[in-house]
Write a structure and sequence with these properties.
The chain has 422 residues and is mainly alpha-helical. Among the domains are: 154 residues, Serine Threonine Protein Phosphatase 5, Tetratricopeptide repeat, CATH 1.25.40; 38 residues, no CATH class; 84 residues, no CATH class. The chain is built from 20 helices and 3 strands. It has a 3-stranded antiparallel β-sheet, with helices on one face. Helix 4 packs parallel to helix 6, helix 16 runs antiparallel to helix 18 and helix 18 runs antiparallel to helix 19. The protein is elongated. Keywords: Repeat, TPR repeat.
């Protein structure tokens, strides 16, 4: 009698296994024919019978489920993309072999592409929180650390500093640098190097005849950027001790890493240590003397320290290297115009004596001299940004103060035109 019960149990298990295989086959056939919704119906039916299946069949089922939900999701339905991700993870945990393992690997790669493309769309739409979540989901699937790096960056933009710190700390613990091989070719029309997604992608584009000089190179390390972000998060939490300790350890371990030197300079600036900031920036410039942005940053630091003339010198150096650096033009004008504050204050406090009148005229001429000094830089900036209302309004007011009546009328008309379009 006991043997009969065992036999009945085995027969029951055989029927269940047959049902599982049948539903899985139906789902595979429907998915192959493009009937995704039908395939998912069969998958749901098979899932209820999955308990008695062996690991290989379970892995086959979860791969199929992942493929079906990925096909159903496209790049827009994140809930279905997450369902696909969970399915592929479960399949991988079951250690499939042969064809099932190959399909799992392909499915995970296709899912990563869908998640990254969807995250890029979210990022472009400034939906940074959703972009971060999608990129982190992608990381959990393929363990591509670049996905975690970009997830952290989007978390920063979303103001979710807890998540950003979690992701960045994971990267630091891994020793992440972001250095990877890049496949490059030169655009014949522009003369600029273009980085392609892969060697095969570059080789395919070479066939178009639009590119030349195919080569490989290693990308720059982003470890300094990671450390910079982490220290800034600590600073935002007023945890300066952790920020300083982290940067100290990093600099001791990598004393010649220029990205870490920049991160330390940025940290000094955020902490208000402008003396240290300027000293570090001078070190950075010594290694990269033709970088206009470095001189611009030094100008900002000098201006914040009240060193107006030094700031203007740095801004002018930035413009020598890059005459199109509009922000440097604006900041030169702003630094010059900042000198008018004490002059206006003294003018307002003068009395009605002849001596006071004479002093007023002297101060007015000094003030107008500042306006004339700032005017060329504002005009150049306004030429670069012709639709910038604030630049044009400042210029119009200056023209009125120094008696440039013709320029005043032109600026006033242009300002009215721009404001009417808002």
């Amino acid at each position: 009698m006991r043997k009969q019960f065992l036999l009945a149990g085995l027969l029951c298990m055989t029927v269940v296994a047959f049902g599982q295989k049948k539903e899985i086959k139906k789902a595979e056939k429907a998915l192959g024919a493009g009937n995704v919704a039908e395939a998912i119906d069969y998958i749901n039916q098979a899932e209820s019978l999955l308990g008695a299946a062996d690991n290989e069949m379970k892995a086959q089922f979860y791969v199929l489920k992942g493929k079906a939900y990925l096909a159903e999701a496209g790049t827009t339905d994140f809930n279905k993309l997450k369902t696909a991700a969970d399915a592929f993870k479960m399949a991988t945990e079951l250690s499939p072999s042969g064809k099932v393992a190959e399909e799992a690997a392909i499915g995970k790669q296709n899912l990563r592409v869908a998640l990254v493309n969807s995250a890029v769309a979210d990022q472009n739409a400034q939906n940074y929180a959703r972009a971060a979540e999608k990129l982190y989901t992608s990381y959990t699937i393929q363990k591509d650390t670049s996905d975690l790096y970009y997830a952290a960056g989007n978390a920063v933009n979303a103001k979710n500093l807890d998540k950003a710190l979690e992701y960045y700390t994971t990267l630091l613990d891994m020793g992440y640098t972001g250095i990877r091989e890049e496949f490059v070719a030169t655009d014949i029309e522009t003369g600029e190097d273009v980085v392609f997604a892969s060697e095969s992608d570059r080789n395919t584009n070479m066939l178009s005849g639009k590119y030349t000089n195919p080569t490989e190179r290693m990308s720059e390390s982003v470890r300094g950027d990671v450390l910079q972000k982490v220290t800034l998060i600590y600073i935002s939490r007023n945890d300066n001790e952790k920020a300083l300790a982290l940067m100290k350890d990093a600099r001791e371990a990598n004393p010649d890493d220029p990205s870490l030197l920049r991160a330390e300079a940025d940290m000094a600036y955020k902490m208000g240590d402008l003396e240290k900031y300027s000293r570090l920036m001078e070190e950075i410039i010594a290694d990269d003397p033709n970088n206009p942005e470095l001189y611009y940053n030094l100008g900002v630091g000098s201006a914040n320290k009240g060193e107006a003339e030094k700031a203007i010198q740095y801004y002018k150096k930035a413009l020598e290297i890059d005459p199109t650096f509009t922000n440097a033009k604006i900041n030169i004008a702003a630094t010059i115009l900042a000198k008018e504050g004490p002059i206006i204050e003294e003018m307002n406090n003068l009395g009605t004596s002849q001596k006071d009148y004479d002093r007023y005229d002297e101060l007015k001429e000094v003030k107008n001299g500042l306006y004339r000094d700032a005017m060329p830089y504002l005009e150049a900036a306004a030429s670069d940004r012709p639709d910038n209302i604030e630049l044009l309004r400042t210029l119009m007011n200056i023209y009125g103060q120094v008696g440039e009546d013709d320029k005043f009328k032109v600026a006033k008309a242009k300002l009215a035109e721009l404001e009417s379009k808002q």
